[in-house]
């Protein structure tokens, strides 16, 4: 082979290599793989503000529901007739209240800050990417531009919501979401997914050949009047144009670093913040009734409420729960909640009409008002019971003392008794009777409080101590014909004769006043 033939053969081999190198020369446009995944990532980040609001609202709604359930169960515990039902309601109220406290604490100490950080970092990187994409998409003429749609060198058309056929609004437009939507299409537990992230340190220039992008040309013939002193970063460092006009590269965003303190570039930082938001959400305490017997919160509610904080008082914690909510525990709890919802107010209480079902009351403060009113009712009833019991005890003791004294016939023996006196003045009869004043002076415990002038039982006490008609009328036994009755059953009570006289006098005064008005 001649020398000329060898030279021609060598030139034929070198020409394709030169053409391939020229395709990646300074100022070439970005190939589709370099910008389309960034558009998809930026669009997905639009969900972050809406997702964050939904997450906060969901936790707040859950917490409010737990507080409402606790208040409702507190009222139901007071309304329930069975003691065991009241116990279960009180325990469940304490459990729901504890869950609400934990969620409140999560909201105040973690979730609000984490949510703000996640939104701020995500929207920041979205804004950086959107701005770079917008500039690159607009830097286009008929024959030149910065973004290619394929390897053949087709320039991407710039539209309001798309670049080429790729959705890319380059706007912050959070969608209206009905429920939380995870960003599973763009991120996973290790970082941003590869289909939505460019490859690290790769040549991203298009291979179309002659499509030029002056924005990506960093020598004197392009972006600046002279060669730049440093590499040109676009999109927050997502794309890096080498200052020597050799390659366009990107940083790694596919994987987050192992710890949040080593977040690398801002895209990794945003990923870490979104991961923290997901982790915080997993710490919330939902209203999960299935398997509740194994939760420390329900076990503590039973230990503290029913056993005064003595752990093990009712056996193992789970056993103590099952004693109140038999298996299946979730069903037992749900059945109790249903009974509480269907319970009705027995009368008008705290302004809420009688027969109102508890399920129709939707304000925690209203349940608190009802509970307060019921507690006051119970305290009043308890006070009345104590007073009634005390009165009965006084009546019993007074009756015993009177019987004891009445059984003494001799005057001397009667007067010698520390609580008896032979009485002849009050009603004209001569009889040994109980003398409370004398008994007190002699140091005898006495519950009788009202006495006659000589220390004997007053006529009104003699009558009012009787609670039924037969015993009331027995006070008149032994009276002489025509003699004034000592006691009488009047208006369902045992009263002395002075009651009638006073009443007749009052009526006569009213009649006289009425006649005076007429004349």
From TrEMBL:
Compartments, as annotated in UniProt: Cell membrane
Alphabetical list of Pfam families matching this protein: Trypan_glycop, Trypan_glycop_C
Role according to the record: VSG forms a coat on the surface of the parasite. The trypanosome evades the immune response of the host by expressing a series of antigenically distinct VSGs from an estimated 1000 VSG genes.
UniProt key word Signal: yes
Gene designation per UniProt: VSG
GO cellular component terms given for this protein: plasma membrane; side of membrane
Membrane topology: Lipid-anchor; GPI-anchor
Region (Disordered): 443-482
Keywords: Cell membrane, Glycoprotein, GPI-anchor, Lipoprotein, Membrane, Signal
Comp. bias intervals (Basic and acidic residues): 469-482
Superkingdom as given in the UniProt entry: Eukaryota
Protein name in the entry: Variant surface glycoprotein
Residues in the signal sequence: 1-19
InterPro entries given in the database record: Trypano_VSG_A_N_dom (IPR001812), Variant_surf_glycoprt_trypan_C (IPR019609)
Domain named Trypanosome variant surface glycoprotein C-terminal: residues: 405-518
Chain ranges of the Trypanosome variant surface glycoprotein A-type N-terminal domain: 11-373
Record-level GO BP terms: symbiont-mediated evasion of host immune response
